[in-house]
Design a protein that fits this description.
Layout (H helix, E strand, L loop, with lengths): L1 H32 L20 H25 L7 H18 L11 H27 L4 H20 L1 H4 L8 H29 L1
InterPro entries: DUF998
Pfam families: DUF998 (PF06197)
Keywords: Membrane, Transmembrane, Transmembrane helix
């Protein structure tokens, strides 16, 4: 019985990493398939629901990423992270935000904000704030890791820049619309943060 539990524990982290990798394929495909249809500079990733098969493929990415993040949280808790501490809450908010943003889609650009669009927007704000803060707390209080800390700080700064970039959409004519660019940079940093976290947990497990 102890051996079986040990194998299950050892399998959690690799499965989470596999989930992270698999979540990249649908969104990369959407970027390639929508060339000339959506601008990666002005359109957000959520806008891919308006292209062919975009809604389903984007849901696969979001939900797989959410599941992989939960797997990382489980691996962290099994490595000694407090189950009910702030990091667990923040990681949970990140994963829940991904799921909620999937269920409640964004509105087409230029249309009035619907209930679903408002929920999507606030879910995005919560998840983009939660993960960088979680990564920073982990690097400061649980696993001292330079890469994790740097990704967390960079993601936090970019998250703020992404939020600020919405001003040009809310108030047309106030500046160039570049929120799509900021969001893609942010997601690249968040993926880097998650992979750095997986690497840090692996090293901790190997050292224990």
């Amino acid at each position: 019985m102890v051996e079986i539990r040990g194998k299950r524990r050892a399998a959690v982290l690799p499965l989470a990493v596999v989930g992270l990798v698999l979540s990249l394929f649908p969104i990369v495909y959407l970027h390639v398939a929508s060339v000339g249809e959506l601008s990666p500079i002005t359109h957000t990733i959520s806008d891919y629901i308006f292209v062919d098969n975009g809604s389903g493929l984007l849901a696969v990415t979001s939900l797989t990423l959410a599941a992989a993040s939960v797997g990382l949280l489980v691996a962290l808790v099994r490595s000694g992270l407090p189950r009910r501490g702030p990091v667990a809450v923040l990681m949970g908010l990140w994963s829940a935000g991904l799921a909620v943003a999937t269920v409640f889609p964004t509105d087409p650009t230029g249309t009035p904000t619907s209930f679903a669009g408002a929920v999507h927007r606030y879910a995005g704000a919560v998840m983009f704030a939660s993960l960088p803060l979680a990564g920073w707390l982990i690097s400061r209080t649980f696993i001292s890791n330079t890469a994790l800390r740097r990704f967390s700080v960079a993601a936090g700064i970019t998250s703020v820049a992404f939020m600020v970039s919405h001003v040009s959409v809310v108030y047309p004519g106030s500046g160039a619309i570049v929120l799509g660019l900021f969001e893609r940079v942010l997601f690249a940093l968040l993926y880097g943060l998650l992979f750095a976290l997986a690497s840090a947990v692996l090293r901790r497990e190997e050292a224990s």
